[in-house]
Design the sequence.
C-alpha cells in the first residue's frame, strides 16, 4: 500500500463510468480497491455520469401519491399529482417556467406582446406532430384555448381563461387579446391544464393524443400508467431519455417509501417531512427538496368581528411562532412565512420586507389596544387543512396563550371542510398551492372581487396597485408595486402565513439529472422527461 | 320434488329477495350521504353556474324513486352505468378489479383453508399438549395484530431488508401467472395469518364437541389410532360449523380486505370503492355495494346448502 490514492486511475474509471461502460456497483468496487471512501466514491460517480450527460434507455419506475381510479387523461379535469405527472410526460403547453422563473418556449417558439400588454402573439413551432401523426397547427392551439374557456369543459384553467376577450389564428401565430392588460399572460399559459390537443380535445378530450415526449401505452387509473418514448418527438435531444416510464400509484406513504428502498421504483413524490431524514440515511436513496410557493395559512376575515380590528389581527400575527412551526410541523423541510403569500420562489420578489417574528409583548400590546373582551377566539382546523394542521393549531394556541390571547380550537371533520368551513368561517386553517407569478396569486385570493378572497381583504390601494402592476411591462416598476402591495398585506391583511412547505421527492441510486424545482413536485412535473438512468 | 332441491330453491329465492332489499338499502344509503356529487367532482374550483350545469347533466334533479328504478332496470339488464368522475363504463372497470380481488381471495383460500383445518386437526390430536398450545397461541396472536401492522412487518423484513418478495403488489394483464403470484405473495401471507386463527379455532372446537360422542369411544375401542379417529369419524360430523366459518372468512377475503389492498397497493375492489366514495361517484358506489352484497349473500347461501348436504339426516329423509 502506498497510502496515496492514484488520481490517474480514478480519472480513468470516472471516464469509463461516464461513458456508461461501468456500472455503479463496479465503479464503487474499484474505488474501494483504490482506497477511496464510499461517500467520496459516490460523489465521484455522480460527477462522472453528470458530466457525461444524459444517456438514453431503460425503464423509469415512478411511485406516486395522488392517483385515484377516478382519474382521466382529460387535461381540463386534472387535479391531483398522478394526472399532473402523466400529462407532463405525454403532453406539452405553449411555454414552461424554468426553476429560475424564466419562460422556456415549448409549443410556442416565440412570444410577442403589444405595447399595452393587451394583445399577445404566440408563434407556433413548426414540425411538431401529435401522437396520431397529424401536424400540430395554430388552429389546434386556438381550439385548446377555446375549450378551456368553456364553462362546460369544467377546466381547472377556467379562471385563467376568463381574462381573455378574443382569440384568433393569424398565420403562424395565435393572437390572444385580453380585456385588461396583463404582463404575465405567457406565464399563465404554462398552466398544466392547457396541454395542446388535436382540435383542442373538443372531439375526444380524454383519448391521450398529445404532442409530448411519451405516448400512453397502458392506462389503468388508480393503478398503473405506462408510457413509451415518442420516436417523433421534436426535442428528443433534450427530453425523453428513458425508453419507458411506468407510473405506479402508491398512495400509502409507507408503501411508497418501502418500494423505493427495496428498489421497486426509482422515483417517489411526497416524502413525509417527519420521515425524510430517516429515508435519506437509507443506502442509495437521495432526498431532493425544493422550497416552493405552497404555503400553510391561518386566515381571518377582515370584515368580521373581532377580526375587523387591525390591532387584533396584528396581535395574532405576533402571537405565532413561525420557526417553531417549521421545525415541528415541517421537520425543517420548509421556510418561515411573513404573512404574505409570496416568497423568494416568485419572480420579482422584494426580500427587503422586514421579517415578522414571534413577540409575545407586541402581541399583548396590540391585543390590549384592540379592546377585545377576552373571550376565547375560535380557530377552526382539520386534518385536511394541511398536513399537521391540528398540531400547528395547538402550537399556535400555546404561543398565543403566552401573550395572554385565548384561542379555542374547534376541530372540524375533513369531509366538507372545503365547502363548509374554509372561505365561510371567519378564522380557520388552510393551505395554498401557490401560483407561478405574484399577479396570479394576488388576483386569486387577495383582490377585492376575487371569488376566493378567503381573508375578505378589501383594500382600494392594493387593488389599484394590482391592476397597475399587471399592465406594467417595466419590470423594475412592477417590482416596486409588488413590494408596496406586499407591505400593505403584511401590515393590514387577514393572512397569517407561518410557513412555506418544501416539495420533498426522493430517488434511487441510478437516477441522474434530478433537480428539485420550486415550481412543483417532480421537477415541476417533468421529471419523467428530464432524468436518465445509469446502470 | 326431492326435499333437498326444494330446500335449496327456497334458499335461493330468499337470497334473491335479500339482494333486492340490499339494493334498496344501498340506494337509500347513497342518497343520504352528506355532500353533493357535483360539488365533490368540481372541488374547490366550482362556480354556481358550473355546478348547476353538472347537476343537470348527471340527472341529479330527477326524483329519487325514478332514479332508483332506472338504476335497477339497468342492473337487471347488466348495465351498471358509467362512472360520473371519469366517464368509464363501470362494468368493465369494476370487472378487472373484481377479478383481482377474487384472484387474491382464491390463492389465499387455497392456502389458508386446508392449513387451518389441518392445524385444527393437529390441535385436537394433541389437545392440551404443546403442539395445541403453540398452534392456538400463534394463530391467536396473528389474528389479534391489526392487518396493516402485519403487512408493514412483512414488508420491512421480506421486501426491504431481505428483498425476498416485492413490497408492492400491483398486478396487470401482461404479467405471467408466476409473476403475479410472486407479486401477491406478501398479501397472501398477511391475509392467511389474519383468517387462519378464526377457522382453525372453529375447526378445533367443532371436532372437540363430537369427540365426546359414544361412537368416537367405539372407534377408539375397536383399535383405531388417534389421528384416524379424528379424520375419519369426528371431522365429517363436525363439518357443518366448519363450512360456515370458512364461508364467512372467504366472504371477508372478498369484501373486507381494503386495508391490505392499501398497504400492498393491490388494485382490488376495496381501493376502487374507497376512491369513488371519496368523490361521491354514486353509480360506482352502488355497483360495488351490490357486488359485495351479492358475494356475502352468495357465500352464506353456499354455506347453508353445503351444511345441509353434509348432514345425512337431511340428505336421506325417511
Sequence:
Amino acid at each position: 500500500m502506498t497510502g496515496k490514492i492514484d488520481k490517474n486511475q480514478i480519472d480513468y474509471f470516472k471516464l469509463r463510468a461516464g461513458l456508461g461502460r461501468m456500472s455503479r456497483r463496479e465503479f464503487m468496487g474499484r474505488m474501494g480497491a483504490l482506497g477511496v471512501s464510499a461517500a467520496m466514491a459516490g460523489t465521484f460517480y455522480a460527477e462522472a455520469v453528470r458530466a457525461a450527460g444524459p444517456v438514453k434507455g431503460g425503464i423509469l419506475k415512478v411511485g406516486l401519491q395522488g392517483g385515484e381510479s377516478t382519474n382521466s387523461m382529460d387535461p381540463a379535469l386534472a387535479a391531483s399529482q398522478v394526472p399532473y405527472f402523466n400529462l407532463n410526460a405525454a403532453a406539452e403547453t405553449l411555454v414552461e417556467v424554468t426553476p429560475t422563473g424564466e419562460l422556456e418556449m415549448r409549443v410556442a417558439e416565440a412570444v410577442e406582446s403589444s405595447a399595452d400588454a393587451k394583445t399577445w402573439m404566440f408563434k407556433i413551432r413548426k414540425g411538431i406532430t401529435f401522437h396520431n401523426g397529424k401536424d400540430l397547427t395554430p388552429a389546434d392551439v386556438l381550439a385548446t384555448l377555446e375549450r378551456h374557456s368553456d364553462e362546460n369543459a369544467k377546466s381547472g384553467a377556467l379562471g385563467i381563461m376568463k381574462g381573455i376577450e378574443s382569440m384568433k389564428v393569424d398565420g403562424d401565430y395565435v393572437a390572444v387579446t385580453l380585456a385588461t392588460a396583463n404582463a404575465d399572460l405567457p406565464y399563465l399559459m404554462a398552466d398544466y391544464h392547457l396541454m395542446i390537443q388535436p382540435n383542442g380535445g373538443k372531439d375526444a378530450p380524454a383519448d391521450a393524443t398529445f404532442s409530448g415526449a411519451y405516448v400512453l401505452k397502458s392506462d389503468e387509473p388508480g393503478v398503473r400508467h405506462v408510457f413509451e418514448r415518442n420516436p417523433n418527438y421534436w426535442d428528443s435531444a433534450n427530453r425523453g431519455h428513458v425508453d419507458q416510464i411506468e407510473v405506479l400509484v402508491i398512495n400509502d406513504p409507507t408503501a411508497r417509501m418501502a418500494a423505493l428502498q427495496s428498489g421497486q421504483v426509482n422515483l417517489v413524490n411526497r416524502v413525509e417531512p417527519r420521515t425524510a431524514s430517516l429515508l435519506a440515511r437509507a443506502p442509495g436513496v437521495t432526498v431532493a427538496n425544493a422550497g416552493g410557493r405552497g404555503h400553510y395559512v391561518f386566515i381571518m376575515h377582515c370584515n368580521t368581528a373581532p377580526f375587523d380590528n387591525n390591532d387584533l389581527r396584528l396581535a395574532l400575527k405576533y402571537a405565532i411562532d413561525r420557526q417553531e412551526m417549521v421545525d415541528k410541523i415541517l421537520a425543517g423541510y420548509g421556510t418561515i412565512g411573513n404573512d404574505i403569500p409570496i416568497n423568494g420562489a416568485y419572480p420579482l420578489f422584494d426580500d427587503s420586507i422586514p421579517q415578522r417574528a414571534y413577540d409575545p409583548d407586541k402581541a399583548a400590546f396590540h391585543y390590549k389596544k384592540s379592546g377585545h373582551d377576552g373571550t376565547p377566539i375560535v380557530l377552526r382546523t382539520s386534518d385536511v387543512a394541511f398536513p399537521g394542521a391540528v398540531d400547528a393549531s395547538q402550537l399556535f394556541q400555546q404561543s398565543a396563550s403566552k401573550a395572554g390571547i385565548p384561542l379555542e380550537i374547534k376541530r372540524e371533520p375533513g369531509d366538507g371542510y372545503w365547502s363548509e368551513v374554509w372561505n365561510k368561517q371567519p378564522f380557520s386553517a388552510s393551505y395554498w398551492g401557490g401560483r407561478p407569478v405574484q399577479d396570479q396569486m394576488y388576483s386569486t385570493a387577495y383582490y377585492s372581487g376575487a371569488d376566493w378572497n378567503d381573508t375578505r381583504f378589501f383594500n382600494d390601494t392594493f387593488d389599484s396597485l394590482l391592476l397597475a402592476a399587471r399592465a406594467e411591462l417595466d419590470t423594475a416598476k412592477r417590482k416596486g408595486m409588488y413590494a408596496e402591495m406586499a407591505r400593505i398585506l403584511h401590515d393590514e391583511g387577514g393572512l397569517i402565513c407561518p410557513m412555506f412547505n418544501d416539495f420533498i421527492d426522493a430517488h434511487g441510486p441510478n437516477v441522474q439529472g434530478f433537480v428539485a424545482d420550486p415550481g412543483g413536485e417532480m421537477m415541476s412535473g417533468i421529471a419523467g422527461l428530464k432524468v436518465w438512468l445509469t446502470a | 320434488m326431492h326435499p333437498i332441491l326444494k330446500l335449496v330453491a327456497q334458499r335461493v329465492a330468499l337470497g334473491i329477495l335479500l339482494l333486492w332489499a340490499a339494493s334498496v338499502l344501498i340506494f337509500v344509503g347513497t342518497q343520504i350521504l352528506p355532500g353533493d356529487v357535483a360539488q365533490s367532482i368540481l372541488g374547490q374550483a366550482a362556480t354556481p353556474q358550473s355546478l348547476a350545469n353538472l347537476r343537470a347533466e348527471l340527472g341529479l334533479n330527477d326524483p329519487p324513486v325514478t332514479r332508483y328504478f332506472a338504476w335497477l332496470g339497468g342492473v337487471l339488464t347488466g348495465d351498471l352505468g358509467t362512472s360520473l368522475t371519469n366517464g368509464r363504463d363501470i362494468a368493465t372497470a369494476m370487472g378487472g378489479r373484481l377479478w383481482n380481488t377474487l384472484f387474491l381471495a382464491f390463492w389465499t383460500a387455497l392456502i389458508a383453508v386446508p392449513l387451518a383445518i389441518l392445524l385444527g386437526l393437529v390441535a385436537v390430536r394433541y389437545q392440551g399438549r404443546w403442539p395445541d398450545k403453540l398452534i392456538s397461541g400463534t394463530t391467536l396472536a396473528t389474528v389479534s395484530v391489526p392487518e396493516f401492522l402485519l403487512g408493514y412487518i412483512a414488508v420491512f423484513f421480506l421486501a426491504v431488508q431481505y428483498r425476498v418478495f416485492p413490497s408492492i403488489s400491483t398486478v396487470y394483464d401482461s404479467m405471467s401467472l408466476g409473476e403475479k403470484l410472486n407479486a401477491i405473495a406478501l398479501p397472501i401471507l398477511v391475509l392467511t395469518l389474519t383468517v387462519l386463527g378464526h377457522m382453525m379455532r372453529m375447526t378445533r372446537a367443532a371436532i372437540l364437541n363430537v369427540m365426546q360422542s359414544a361412537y368416537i369411544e367405539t372407534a377408539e375401542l375397536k383399535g383405531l389410532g388417534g389421528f384416524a379417529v379424528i379424520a375419519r369419524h369426528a371431522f365429517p360430523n363436525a363439518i357443518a360449523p366448519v363450512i360456515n366459518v370458512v364461508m364467512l372468512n372467504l366472504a371477508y377475503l372478498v369484501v373486507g380486505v381494503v386495508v391490505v389492498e392499501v398497504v400492498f397497493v393491490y388494485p382490488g375492489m376495496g381501493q376502487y370503492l374507497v376512491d369513488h366514495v371519496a368523490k361521491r361517484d354514486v353509480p360506482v358506489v352502488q355497483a360495488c355495494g351490490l357486488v359485495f352484497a351479492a358475494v356475502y349473500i352468495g357465500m352464506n347461501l353456499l354455506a347453508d346448502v353445503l351444511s345441509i348436504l353434509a348432514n345425512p339426516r337431511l340428505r336421506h329423509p325417511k
